[in-house]
């Protein structure tokens, strides 16, 4: 089989072992990145296309007459026209649960940084304020313990459950929201019941029509004054203008987000303003540990082995 990887640079920082994956193909051609106008030429003649975020639409798939399988190097499938692939007899697989430990760790790091004012204290030490202190320590910024705080989780799949497990080790009480737009599950709380009681709200749900702008000005007003918000899911779930306003006026004590509504934010973003207090932004890097990225490669190798044996796994169409 012949394979092309259209955007290897989005996964591999020259630190992954691709040998087993490459060995499954008679020809394996990885491209660091692929522009829209280059896609058709590069997929022509390929039996397998591996892709992370490059868009494969109906027109592209229809022209790729030799294509038999698309392997998505991620969980999300929105960049591939699944209906067109199905009609054309092209199977599509994804990768699953590869980043649970990485994302959960990142969420807790953000939560700890906010509660300890870690970034402010680091800056205070580096800019000389600690050196000018009248005593051995500097306590200019509030420090809070996680122990005894209530963590609300929206989206209780692998990632939400992983965060809950780590939070429990810090002595936090965990409550879980009902699935947005889904069936009622015993023991879980409706959003209007959950929001007023949480000290920290952590988002792990997919972006859908039901969850878009889920956390807006109205939802934030239902939260405790001084609560914290963590978003490691998708940017569109939080109304970014409303969040910026809530931080500026002190409704929320702090927030951290690993995602924005446009990525990369080439057109700017309300949350990138310089005057927003106690906000941490990371560049969609929560998933990106070397271990998580290697799991993606290993899962794709398993997928291709299964495909060749007539037993495809992780098929999504």
Question: Nutshell version of this structure?
Answer:
With 317 residues, the chain is an alpha/beta fold. The chain has helices spanning 19-23, 39-43, 58-63, 82-87, 100-116, 118-126, 158-169, 191-194, 217-222, 240-248, 290-308; strands spanning 2-5, 27-30, 48-51, 69-72, 91-93, 150-154, 173-176, 200-203, 227-231, 252-257, 279-281. It is 31% helix and 15% strand.
Written description of the protein model:
By secondary structure, the protein is α/β, with parallel strands linked by helices. It folds into two domains: 2-97 and 290-309, NAD(P)-binding Rossmann-like Domain (Rossmann fold, 3-Layer(aba) Sandwich); 99-281, Rossmann fold (3-Layer(aba) Sandwich), CATH 3.40.50. Helices cover 31% and strands 15% of the residues. It is elongated and about 70 Å long. Residues 27-316 form the D-isomer specific 2-hydroxyacid dehydrogenase catalytic domain. It comes from Amphritea atlantica. Keywords: NAD, Oxidoreductase. GO terms for molecular function: NAD binding; oxidoreductase activity, acting on the CH-OH group of donors, NAD or NADP as acceptor.
Structural features:
317 residues; six-stranded parallel β-sheet; alpha/beta; D-isomer_DH_CS; Rossmann fold; D-isomer_DH_NAD-bd
């Amino acid at each position: 089989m012949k394979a092309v990887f259209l955007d290897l640079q989005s996964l591999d920082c020259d630190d992954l072992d691709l040998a087993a994956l490459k060995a499954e193909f008679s020809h394996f051609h990885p491209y660091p990145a692929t522009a829209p106008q280059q896609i058709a030429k590069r997929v022509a003649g390929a039996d397998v296309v591996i892709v992370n975020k490059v868009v494969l639409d109906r027109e592209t798939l229809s022209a790729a007459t030799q294509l038999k399988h698309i392997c998505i190097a991620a969980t999300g499938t929105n960049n591939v026209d699944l209906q067109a692939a199905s009609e054309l007899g092209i199977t599509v697989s994804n990768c699953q649960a590869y980043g649970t430990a990485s994302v959960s760790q990142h969420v807790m790091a953000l939560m700890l940084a906010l509660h300890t004012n870690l970034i402010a204290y680091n800056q205070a030490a580096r800019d000389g304020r600690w050196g000018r202190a009248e005593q051995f320590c500097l306590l200019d910024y509030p420090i809070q313990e996680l122990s005894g705080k209530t963590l609300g989780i929206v989206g209780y799949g692998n990632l939400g459950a992983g965060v809950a497990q780590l939070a429990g080790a810090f002595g936090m009480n965990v409550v879980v929201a009902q699935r947005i737009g889904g069936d009622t599950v015993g023991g879980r709380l409706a959003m209007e019941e959950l929001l007023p009681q949480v000290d920290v709200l952590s988002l792990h749900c997919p972006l859908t029509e039901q969850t878009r702008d889920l956390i807006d000005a109205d939802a934030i007003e239902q939260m405790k004054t001084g609560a914290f918000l963590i978003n490691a899911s998708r940017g569109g779930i939080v109304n970014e203008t409303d969040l910026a306003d809530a931080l500026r006026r002190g409704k929320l004590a702090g927030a951290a987000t690993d995602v924005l509504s446009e990525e990369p934010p080439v057109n700017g973003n309300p949350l990138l303003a310089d005057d927003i207090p106690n906000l941490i932004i990371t560049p969609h890097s929560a998933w990106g540990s070397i271990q998580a990225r290697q799991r993606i490669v290993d899962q794709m190798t398993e997928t291709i082995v299964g495909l060749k044996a007539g037993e495809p796994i992780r098929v999504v169409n």
